């Protein structure tokens, strides 16, 4: 049986949204790509609803995706607002992610996830 305090904890946790972006980045494009990720995450960390982030690079075995970014947000509204701010940042920087991905041969997979509570 779940106690009231555990129910409250689970309810709050289940509202969190995790933005998980996976990238297949060729070695030659790694420095430029990671610099863009760094700049973007610096902005994300200042936004309302941001909880935490992590940028991961695969170090063993070969897989399609070798860089993964995860950002934890308070709720879906926070992630919607973050998306607006990221587009604004990219416009300020005259940065086109699609152009970068095409030029460097980067493949990407984006998704929003919830904690299942299990």
**Ends apart, CA distance between termini:** 14 Å
Counted by DSSP, the helix tally is: 4
**Fraction of residues in H or I helices:** 40-55%
Overall CATH architecture: 2-Layer Sandwich
Low-confidence stretches: 1-10
- Write down the Rg: 16 Å
Q: Can you tell me the CATH topology?
A: Alpha-Beta Plaits
Structural class by secondary-structure content: alpha+beta
CATH class: Alpha Beta
**What assembly state would you assign to the polypeptide chains in this entry?**
single chain
* Share in β-strands: 25-35%
Largest sheet descriptor: 4 strands, antiparallel
Shape descriptor = globular
Q: What number is the mean pLDDT? A: 89
Order of helices and strands: HEHEEHHE
What distinguishing features does this structure have?
118 residues, globular, disordered N terminus, alpha+beta, 4-stranded antiparallel beta sheet, Alpha-Beta Plaits
Protein described:
- This protein has helices at 4-15, 30-44, 76-92, 97-104, and strands spanning 17-24, 50-57, 67-73, 107-113.
- It is α+β, with helices and mostly antiparallel strands and 118 residues long.
- It has one domain (16-113): Alpha-Beta Plaits, CATH 3.30.70.
- The chain has a four-stranded antiparallel β-sheet with strand order 2-3-1-4.
- It starts with a helix and ends in a 5-residue tail after the last strand.
Brief synopsis:
The protein has 118 residues and is α+β, with helices and mostly antiparallel strands. It has helices spanning 4-15, 30-44, 76-92, 97-104, and strands at residues 17-24, 50-57, 67-73, 107-113. The protein has a single domain (16-113), classed as Alpha-Beta Plaits.
